[in-house]
Design a protein that fits this description.
Family: Belongs to the N(4)/N(6)-methyltransferase family.
GO molecular function, one term: N-methyltransferase activity
Protein name: Methyltransferase
Strand content: 15-25%
Enzyme class: transferase
Oligomer: single chain
Number of helices: 6
Keywords: Methyltransferase, Transferase
Radius of gyration: 21 Å
Helix content: 10-25%
């Protein structure tokens, strides 16, 4: 990881707790930046207990002392969400010379103006990005890879924690969604996977998108057609 980088570790409820302990040992507990709860709108509906309808993404800096250096593009429109209707009705009562609705707050003797049309900073619970389920517009993204993630999810992550020209790495790249998102947003990318299916799917997807890349190394297990 480079200075200022953020590690996003995406897991389900069966593995996230063990991974959190392992990452705390590796990076230090002070490097933990938080977690994102992604609720993609699907998941099993169990009869015994609460249905699991979310996934967890852990965020880590490279080290505890670098928390203040991590890249976070807070002003990016994809990291904003609309204000609640109740908040708009209660607090946004002023209009500027262009007719834009706003509220003003004074904090520490300094006045701050918040515009309704800019929304508020995105929180850590994401419910606005649906998962890859059948019979939705996301089918056009589908590759058939079993754990494929929607492009919009990775676009948000890439935009949040990198600048154009930066390098984005996904070493368990699966169907290649991160690589496609990075290329579209003007980032360089490095991808890897130990699965023959992932390797073939990601390459086919990059070719279909017209994205240039170089293959640095093909593991022997993939060259001879064996699935690790």
């Amino acid at each position: 990881m480079a200075e200022g980088a953020t590690l996003y570790l995406h897991l389900d409820h069966r593995a996230v707790h063990d991974a959190k302990v392992a990452c705390d040992r590796l990076f230090g507990r002070g490097a933990f930046l938080g977690e994102i709860i992604w609720a993609p709108g699907n998941g099993g509906r169990g009869a015994r207990g609460f249905s699991v309808t979310h996934q967890t993404i852990l965020l880590y800096a490279r080290a505890a002392g670098e928390r203040g250096q991590v890249v976070y593009n807070a002003a990016d429109p994809m990291l904003r969400e609309p204000f609640a209707e109740t908040s708009l009705a209660m607090h946004f009562k002023h209009r500027d010379e262009d007719g834009r609705l706003y509220r003003e707050r004074v904090l520490g003797g300094k006045a701050y103006r918040y515009y309704a049309d800019e929304g508020r900073r995105l929180g850590s619970v994401w419910t606005d990005i649906p998962g890859m389920v059948a019979n939705t517009p996301l089918r056009r993204e589908g590759t058939g890879y079993p754990t494929q993630k929607p492009e919009r999810l990775l676009e948000r992550i890439v935009r949040a924690s990198s600048a154009p020209g930066a390098t984005v790495a996904d070493l368990m790249c699966g169907s290649g969604t991160t690589l496609v998102a990075a290329a579209r947003l003007g980032r360089r990318f490095v991808g890897g996977d130990r699965s023959q299916l992932a390797f073939a799917t990601a390459r086919e997807r990059l070719d279909r998108e017209g994205i240039a890349y170089s293959v640095l190394e093909v593991p022997e297990a993939l060259r001879d057609g064996a699935e690790p």
